[in-house]
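Hey, can you fold this one?
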Amino acid sequence: MAALPDPGQSRAVLIGTASYRHLDQLPAVGTNLVDLAAELGDATVWGLPDRHCTVVADPLSAPAMLDPVHQAGNEATDTLIVYYSGHGMRDAESSDLYLALGDSRDNRGYTAVAYQHLRASLRAARARRKIVILDCCFSGRAARALGGDEVLAAQAAVDGAYVLTSSPRDRVALAPDGERHTAFTGELLGILRDGIPGGPELIDLETLYRALDERLRAKNRPLPQRSQENGVGRLAVARNRARAAPSALAGPVLAADVQAAMVATGLNLARLLRAEGTIKDALPVLRLALEEQSTEGPGELLAVQLELSELLAETGQNKEAIEVLESAFQRVHKVYGPEAVLVCRRLAELLQESGNHIEACEVLKHALDIAERDATPAV
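Sure. Predicted structure:
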């Protein structure tokens, strides 16, 4: 009987670069990371503990990007998920895939992180199953590298690896202006949140791929690609919310799971209300979700706080929005360095808009200190 991977023995590393010096900015990447972490941790989707999901936002170096992957690979014995969102690049000489950093330059592979180094981290991982999700330009080249024939197959074979990518290897992935998420991740999150009507109780990787292909094709957007080994495509990765039933939650439901489900439901309801333009109704829902959040769910708490701060800013309540973000920073700074950088950036923007230029500069300097500290290898 199909079952989800054991959350206690699994790990996820979500990597994203939203801010660049020499390439186009991708603000949707930041919300990709926050919302995907929240969905993976949702007890009605998978229930991955927050401590097993590492968010790496705007890494400044290869070690900052790949060290968390190595660590998660050493810890996971069931399933390892690695997600990257940002610019994908091709080297001018080799045309191999590179994952961009904030200071990367086009056609300069040495300024980015070679995909082959991520591939090496996956080969070294203890996990029985590995899932790679790449939401970037030219990401289909990674699928060829992991699952193709010719010489690359021997060099890049990863037992049990499934690679899901946002575009064919010679197409550019799409980040629509004004949308909360990139095209690919937006559809991925939609499937996790709403499920697949008429689909199985548990969504496996191949079912997920086919649903993504259908939805992106209907919108005339770049189509996803995938590659797999050892039949890992049959691996279930999420409960199908479209078939929500009392039996959907396997095993005993703990109080923390119920609380997490309540927070996730409140967050999703607020987003729905926001999409329908009823922000006034969304605000109290988010405030209630914030009150329900326990101290042991920093990932979910951050998603609620970021959503609430955005709505408050949209309605001109900048003072309260700043207070929410300051509270968020105090929490995430103790647990997630990369997420603290994301909060700092949002907080600095609000402070700047409010005329607090000196404080905004101090917050940005603090974010830089955090990023540099996280990028420095431990001695």
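The first strand starts at residue 11 and ends at 16. Let me know if you want another pass with a different chain boundary.
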